[in-house]
Write a structure and sequence with these properties.
Number of domains: 1
Shape: globular
Number of helices: 0
Structural class: mainly beta
Radius of gyration: 14 Å
Largest sheet: 6 strands, mixed
Strand content: over 45%
Helix content: under 10%
CATH class: Mainly Beta
Order of helices and strands: EEEEEEEEEEEE
Mean pLDDT: 90
CATH superfamily: Cupredoxins -  blue copper proteins
CATH topology: Immunoglobulin-like
Distance between the termini: 18 Å
Low-confidence stretches: none
Amino acid sequence: MLDTNGTATFFKVTVMLENGEPVFSYTDADDTPVTGDITFTDAGTVTYQLNDRTGKGLKFVGVGFNTPFDGIVDAVTLSSDGQLIQIIDLDRLPGCTEFQFVLSNTANTLLVLSPDPQVINVPK
């Protein structure tokens, strides 16, 4: 898990198919494998870039939260081409929230859900 202090953080989200099922993996800016989880100790932004290796035309369409009103994450932005998602956390409240990326594809009208990375707030 990555700890960040008031910085911008970058992750690449690679999606491949294994036996016809999407498999997600995460790397940092140096292509080092990571979990995709992040701990904030100050305000920050995490950018996730999609690396679609499925051949199915995946695009980010959003982020789903089980607890969208807990105040842990403050905002989510999505690029117009569906290749980038940014999660903005002002780190005002302590706690942990899980989320899933929601992706569309060009093979059918069904949506793809990622496993759930976490955002953890540990205010100073």
